[in-house]
Specification:
CATH topology of the largest domain in chain A: Nucleotidyltransferase, domain 5
Helix content of chain A: 25-40%
CATH superfamily of the largest domain in chain A: ATPase, nucleotide binding domain
Oligomer: homodimer
CATH architecture of the largest domain in chain A: 2-Layer Sandwich
Largest sheet of chain A: 5 strands, mixed
Strand order of the largest sheet of chain A: 3-2-1-4-7
Chain lengths: ~325, ~325
């Protein structure tokens, strides 16, 4: 029987699904907007729809899949498949048995993992990290997630490792929504960058960020909006992206000082869109924060691109023997 | 034949040597002031003298030792036994074949390790970390060194891991002598605390720190001076120690956010002298910097005490079969 696995990347704005073969090659895909209605029901339906569409695109029935791996933002119990808490997904503020619910509907095994964790694992096994022994993945998007890979394994600690975005680089500095002050994410998370852009406009600064947002037809300052504004020479965009780069660089240098890893891999919505030019700026900005600047590790860009989260999620399902 | 190992802790102010038996029990010890004359010759002689005295105290000849392990501050090549650079030891600004030189003089094998690395390994195998799977040791002294233990092994990365003292917590903040700004050590290293105390006195602040230093007969604000000043209610000492605690807490919380380790072990001259009351203050100060304050790991005090560095160094010599 054909071996087909589905991987789903559940995001705050979209649900991305891929169906891959035994060699991890993408055979089918689908993308659906994440419903914003209250309650988990509509999100569950949308996930099932994305799986069904991706399976159809790969010419298999959902029930013929060897399994579905789902990467979800927030706290995940990978043993039980319960999405403990996902503040960015409407209706998932409370624990929800996501894997079990989807499994019953689709008719195949379902496993759940953290979205950044599975994306970093994707880079480890199939992407920029495939020849590295150790690295730190920094996923720069709405928030800034991270994954620590040591001796070619994800490091979990007591279960909650990888919160580089919430490390402090500026005591008493900017607040993030959680109330923590001066963390890397307070400067670099896209949501917080948008809050700062709003505040700047209210204070009288000029920018094309929000005009571009409307032109493109977005409700948020998406990665594309930031990229286009930056390329147009917008001063506020340049300033806020510059501050985000410095914050990411400080936190990345800290983790290099502590763990002396072989590389930093930059991914996520903003990281992947900005690509190597911005990764190079992060590398330069790391220099003053490194104890040994002469042995600064490379800052690489995630290779699996937009589908990386979904492809990484498919790795949650082991190959059948 | 009796199995006796010597461990040496080479410090900027003193050289501590112990001779231990196969069960790591201390059978002899010696302490010698670190010579301040230029050139490595006098320091090498002092190390040999410390080994000889500790061996005599344990009733063995130096040549009968199974080996000597030396923990040295600075960059160490543990393969070749070369002390690459030890800025705190007069005469060791250039690479020096320390293990080979001592081995020829003493007549037994000599191994070299980083001082904080061997002290943390001592805690891992014989001290506060003996039942932990993973922890970070923070050695609070003249500088602030650290050691990362993962799955009961020291983590070295590409060879230079463990520089938690040089991670940034306050971009653009206080300078440390290396020129790095706003690092934890800039606030918490004893040398930098002394610099700040001098500056405060020049700015008109009152303190008993320097009077106590002279009473005790020291040339530096030693750990004992800080402790006695703090206990006397000195306001400047309380303020600077408080700021050091907050800096250590911020960096410790960062490493917990990244690695989610089971514990922080606090050691070093100041850490060991201040003991559990200050470790408890570090734990409290970590709270606002933790992403998951409810699962804050314990902050423990190193158990091997003053001789921990020398005992840890003895572990560089494996047991003979």
């Amino acid at each position: 029987m054909t071996h087909r696995i589905c991987g789903v990347d559940l995001g705050g704005t979209k649900i991305e699904a891929v169906v891959v073969d035994a060699e991890h090659k993408v055979r089918g895909k689908a993308r659906i907007q994440t419903p914003t209605a209250d309650g988990p029901g509509s999100v569950v339906e949308a996930i099932i729809e994305a799986i069904t569409q991706a399976a159809a695109d790969a010419r298999v029935k959902p029930s013929e899949l060897s399994g579905v791996g789902i990467g979800a933002p927030g706290a995940v119990d990978s043993e039980t498949g319960v999405l403990t808490r996902a503040p960015n997904i409407p209706g998932f503020e409370q624990p929800y048995p996501l894997a079990e619910t989807i499994s019953k509907a689709v008719g195949c095994p379902v496993k759940l993992g953290n979205d950044v964790g599975v994306a970093v694992r994707g880079e480890l096994e199939l992407g920029a990290g495939r020849e590295l022994q150790h690295f730190v993945g920094i996923w720069w998007g709405t928030g800034v997630g991270s994954g620590v890979v040591l001796n070619r394994k994800m490091w979990h600690g007591r279960g909650a490792a990888g919160e580089l975005g919430h490390t402090v680089i500026q005591r008493g500095g900017l607040a993030e929504p959680s109330g923590m002050l001066g963390t890397m994410e307070a400067y670099a998370g896209r949501r917080n960058m948008e809050t700062r852009a709003h505040a700047a406009v209210e204070a009288g600064r000029e920018t094309n960020l929000f005009a571009l947002m409307e032109q493109i037809g977005k409700k948020r300052l998406s990665s594309r909006v930031w990229q286009e504004s930056l390329e147009s020479g917008d001063e506020l965009a340049a300033e806020l992206v510059g501050e985000a780069i410095d914050a990411i660089a400080a936190a990345a240098a800290n983790v290099v000082n502590i763990l002396d890893v072989e590389a930093i891999i930059l991914g996520g919505g903003l990281g992947s869109r900005f690509g190597q030019p911005v990764a190079d700026r992060v590398a330069v900005a790391m220099q003053p924060y490194l104890f040994l600047p002469e042995s600064s590790p490379p800052v690489m860009v995630a290779e699996l691109g937009d589908l990386g989260g979904a492809i990484g999620a498919s790795l949650l399902i082991g190959k059948q023997s």
